[in-house]
Amino acid sequence: MDAVVEVHGLTKRYVSGPVVGPIDFEVWPGQVLAVAGSNGAGKSTTLRMLLGLASPSQGRALVMGRPYRQLEHPGLQVGVFLGGRLGDESMTSREYLTFMAGMQGLHNVRRRVRRVLRACSLDHWPKVRIRGYSTGMRQRLGVACAMLSDAPILVLDEPFNGLDIEGRLWLHDSLKQWAESGRTVILAAHEIEELQRIATHVLIVMHGRQMGCGPIEQVINDNSDGAGIIFRFANGVDVSRKAAALNDLMGMGADLRALKNDLYLARRTDEDTVFATAARCEAPLVQLNRAEPTLREVMTSIINRSSVKSHTS
Ligand SMILES: Nc1ncnc2c1ncn2[C@@H]1O[C@H](COP(=O)(O)OP(=O)(O)OP(=O)(O)O)[C@@H](O)[C@H]1O
């Protein structure tokens, strides 16, 4: 079995200055690759280069072994959602999807459209024209359009924008199913918790530079100090003051943080330190838990590291 997407040294140098890359990754059937990074990091540029919508200054991106633009039937190989306007807003979603299926030369159009309308819960509003759609409904329709051809690869840029909780759950389940059936998903988004739940792999891009890539657990472990410790206090304890006092007292720098009633020690530490910290809190402790490192923490620590670097360089 081969990688369905191969990206090697992919770089974009915009004439106006920003540089994205070099980016390197491979994606295999059954994987969900999350592309994570802050605003302007280079997520969309990476996806656009992959899809032949932005020309790379260096490097290459192959989809099924070829540049996207050289694929014979790109619409059948890759379902794409990049946000933006949908097109003729006087159509209903059924009309729009039927039109788009025709444009892609798909067979069994009625059945496909019915299936996707139901899967994306767009059949709740059969008569509403797109111009009357909310942001979330438009988002569902855009994703529905990407899913229409049942392509082996889905590429989605910011698919969670404007979705309510139900919409997020729907998208979460749909993308997981997509990958579990042996297909591939590549998605860029800011919703870190969602990404961690859905993704098998992650590519982290910050300020145009690739900061990590690989299986999500591996990237998290490689970029964190392991599980942290949560000290939970009874109501009424001023946890912020305790965090500040303990950081001074124990010389742990910024490792102790206040989160509502919790004091969070964001790194692995020995038992003695945990108990010494608990004793110095001098407040009723109601729970002591281990907290596994998360993608959010890794992203935060990469952001902090890169801002320290840029301040010191
Ligand atoms: N067409 C363009 N011309 C010039 N610079 C661009 C162009 N498109 C993007 N950039 C720049 O490239 C960098 C990466 O932008 P990109 O849109 O890829 O980031 P992003 O990670 O998708 O950001 P966001 O999360 O805010 O959508 C930014 O500095 C941006 O200003």
UniProtKB/TrEMBL annotation:
<dbReference type="InterPro" id="IPR003439">
    <property type="entry name" value="ABC_transporter-like_ATP-bd"/>
</dbReference>
<dbReference type="GO" id="GO:0016887">
    <property type="term" value="F:ATP hydrolysis activity"/>
</dbReference>
<protein>
    <submittedName>
        <fullName>ABC transporter</fullName>
        <ecNumber>3.6.3.41</ecNumber>
    </submittedName>
</protein>
<dbReference type="Pfam" id="PF00005">
    <property type="entry name" value="ABC_tran"/>
</dbReference>
<feature type="domain" description="ABC transporter">
    <location>
        <begin position="5"/>
        <end position="232"/>
    </location>
</feature>
<keyword id="KW-0378">Hydrolase</keyword>
<keyword id="KW-0067">ATP-binding</keyword>
<keyword id="KW-0813">Transport</keyword>
<dbReference type="InterPro" id="IPR003593">
    <property type="entry name" value="AAA+_ATPase"/>
</dbReference>
<keyword id="KW-0547">Nucleotide-binding</keyword>
<dbReference type="InterPro" id="IPR027417">
    <property type="entry name" value="P-loop_NTPase"/>
</dbReference>
<dbReference type="GO" id="GO:0005524">
    <property type="term" value="F:ATP binding"/>
</dbReference>
<comment type="similarity">
    <text>Belongs to the ABC transporter superfamily.</text>
</comment>
